[in-house]
Model the fold of this input.
Amino acid sequence: MSAQPVIRLAPPGRRGRRAPDPAPEVEIDAGPAATGSGPGPGAEAGMAPPIAAPMPPRARPRRVNWPAVISFALIVVLPVVVIGTYYYRHAADQFTATARFTLRETRARPLGFEAAEGAPERIGSGLATETVSHFTHVAASYLESRALLADLGAVLDVDAMFRRPEADFWARMPEGLPAEARFDYWRERVRVAVDGPSGIVSLQIRAFRPEDALALADAAVARAEALVNALSLRQKADAVARAEAEAAESERRLQASIAALSAFRDREGLLDPGQEGAETVRLLSQLTTERIRLESELRVLDRVVDGDAARARALRTRLASITGDIAQLRDQLGSGAAADASLAAALGRFEALEIRRRFAAKLYGLAQTRRINAEIDRARQSVFLNLFDPAQRPERSDHPRRAAFTLLAFLGLSAGWAILALIWASVADHRLDRRG
Done:
């Protein structure tokens, strides 16, 4: 049987900066030729080629990646220790006072002019309805504004409250801050939330002492209520001013219409052309009836006595007078040539002036009703701040959250260190690839 050499190669070394690996060890299995049981290695031309087999890997001790350990300690462990030490040994306790309130507005439906005219004592006694006030978001914005900080400064020493001796260096309000930085510091310690459907406003204020947090919360709610009441009163005052202006204008128009009507009566000498016309028609009817009676009586008398009799002359004189009165009354009713001076033309002008007077009187009554309702509404409070959850003196500190902030710092720094390590490993592999 021909010899079959077996070559076993040592495992390849790891890439890196180290000494070159020794030459591969080769083990040749000569087969039967080595024992003399067969022909020698060169005896036959058809001898099988040698078979190379790799050597088993050699165990090497694992080395510690000291750069990674040192960088993790510097980037993650040391800062977390510093942050934890600050929070647990130096950070001052802060207390939060919470208040919740709603703003409700009552609106009374004003009494109409007709009802007020029939029952003046019912003016301003319309049905009242309660709704969520539109001042809710105004109050919430005010609680987060610089105006509140300025108003609180008038009644409380806000700067001294945030510079208490127990406050730590990083949380204390620094000295000599400009207005913008001072307001930013205040905003970090105030939280305002508004629940849209219900209109509930939640206010949270943090301070270094429980009594300071309570005083700030109470003062802020009081200032918000004062602001809402002031805005409501201003709105009502504007409504009263507009109503009074409308009432004054309607009164001027009414006086002008009354003056025009009085001038017409003085010029025409008629108190009421309508009544004057009705009276004229009544007199004309009576005179016509009287003339017919006299004509009948005169015809009968002419047949009985002489026409020159005293009775006949008296009847003719009476008839002529009545006929003249009838003609004059007919001229007053417009049957004459001077139509402009007739009673019919005067009646038309009078009706136009009377319609204007009635319309002006109607507007004047409506304006006076609105003015009275506006004055009653101004005297009555319509916006109410319902403080259903007043601020209480906090008994336990809820800030800073030491464990949570330390854990967040550890997670954030660990994520940053991992990203830097991946970038460094990628750069190192790229350099090795370029050298190979």
User: Anything to note?
Assistant: Confidence is low (pLDDT under 50) at residues 6-46, 122-127, 335-340. The chain is about 55% helix and 10% strand.
